[in-house]
Write a structure and sequence with these properties.
The complex is a heterodimer.
Chain A (H helix, E strand, L loop, with lengths): L24 E5 L11 E7 L2 E8 L7 H6 L3 H8 L8 H15 L5 H28 L4 H22 L8 E2 L2 E2 L7 H24 L2 H7 L9 H4 L5 H4 L7 H4 L20 H25 L21 E9 L2 E9 L5 E7 L2 H12 L5 H10 L5 H4 L1
Antiparallel strand pairs in A: 1-2, 2-3, 4-5, 6-7, 7-8
Chain B lengths: L1 H10 L2 E8 L2 E6 L1 H14 L4 E10 L4 E10 L4 E10 L15 H11 L31 H8 L11 H9 L7
Parallel strand pairs in B: 2-5
Antiparallel strand pairs in B: 1-2, 3-4, 4-5
Classes of the chains: A alpha+beta, B alpha+beta.
Amino acid sequence: MTRYATIPAPETPAPAIDLSSGKYLKLWQGPQHPGITGNMSVELTVCGDEVVEGKTHVGYLHRGFEKLMERRSFIQVFPIVCRVCVPEPDFNEYCYAGVIEELSGIAAPERALWIRTLILEMGRINSYLMYLGGQAGALGLGVVGQWTTYVRDLMLDRFEELTGARIYHMFILPGGVRDGLPDGFDARMEETLREIERTMADVENVMFHNAVFKKRTEGVGVIPVELIDTYGVTGPNARAAGLPNDVRRDQPYLVYRELDFEPVTATASDMYARADVRRRDVLVSVDLIRQILAKMPRSGPLMAKLPNVLHWKIPRGETYVRGECSRGEYGYYAVTDGSGFPRRINVRGPSYTHAMALLEHLIPGTNISDVAALMVSLHTYPPEIER
Amino acid sequence: MRTLIERLQDRFALGPITEQRPDLAFVTVERAVLRPVLTHLRDHEGFTHLVLLTAVDWIEDGLFQLTYLVHDRRHGRDVGLRVLLPRETAEMESIHDLWPTAATYQRELREMFGIAFPGSPRVDEEFILEGWIDIPPYRRDFDTKAFSDAAFVHRPGRVTHDPATHMRERLHPEGTAK
């Protein structure tokens, strides 16, 4: 295929960096560093201000979730999956519910599918708001983070009244969802959405029309379009390169088939384009929430009938369920063996490829001061890497 | 999906096939056939996206299952290739030259399952675990409780009670009920 970049053969390794020459310096960015995206670190080799090599190190947050899941019954796994990803936990619940329902032949009721979609879009907005604050903060625009944290908090209030929890909702369980919308939810959500729109207009003015932000981000950290598939790039990182890859549209799940939207794309594929795609995606999600609230059924069952969860056995099988989270393709691969416990559950988070191979590929040649902003611009969450 | 499977069958020797969904099929292949099938799927069938590479431990059969999941964006479909390896001498050819991201997956599998991928970049470097001394922890025969008992010092003051005895003593301290 012509879209593939030439990859160096394994027998021609990169020239070794001679640290004893006095020309290079090792510099650790992270794990305790404000410019790192969570619990990871990047081992930089620098020559003056220029970075010549970067290696990602993870393992600071390994909690062995996949092993833990193998020792728990199917219903006991449900409350721990959301802990895999803090800023956008609902995708884990959706994907886990998806694989379990498929392997056990259960279909969630339609009203539950609408509420699931609503929750996933609310979570997407929250995740983007957190990202925008981080991206601006990495380049010295501290005020944007304060504004986005404010509106994110309003959305957390909506989560709290809908699910009873602000961060880990434990709401989408195999078979359906735990509850319907509370009284007056639509009006309060509309208020929140308007506040988000007002704030996003301010963010656009202060961040995206800012000369310093543009100068620091335009043309920096470019992902060539040929590398999108070779490096497993998904989500806004791929859409900023001009590819309209969006699981919500390409393989519609839940009720996305009934919603009207177009994937947001850009062409420059640099840090600015990626930030802009995410900013515009917030507005798409705001519109999707309005569509969902206007179209969703207001009555009907919320849960399918489940077997006795204490003795729930699932026949031998395997499957993969994916969705489009704020960072790209999120998926669960599950294998069952007929017993009451999963044989294997593998979490596929987009950061696994973005923060490891892709980041290490993009770092050489950048300036030390751009590394933090580059990492943030890939929107990575380390817990997805080490689970 | 059916026609794709038929085309693959014409070209390669395939093992058992599971059509899980209209857009998802799992196919078992021999170890030697994996690379040609993957290359064919990538270059001629549009499966350009390596979604994941992971392992399943079938300890009772003495086998590891490697699952290579690839995705065709244009038609919105996935194929999972299963390769079964003997558990005791688990070794597999690296595919990092097909997809550079495979090196990360292979490094993790080397550490967590002890499956060797000779030639894969930095495959022997520590990935998540630091100074690991036991058997690879995602193998089914790794006993987390025994490892934790041996490796960590428990805080004093923690006592484990037998629930039945404990409740009987709490409810009937004089020992009137049996």
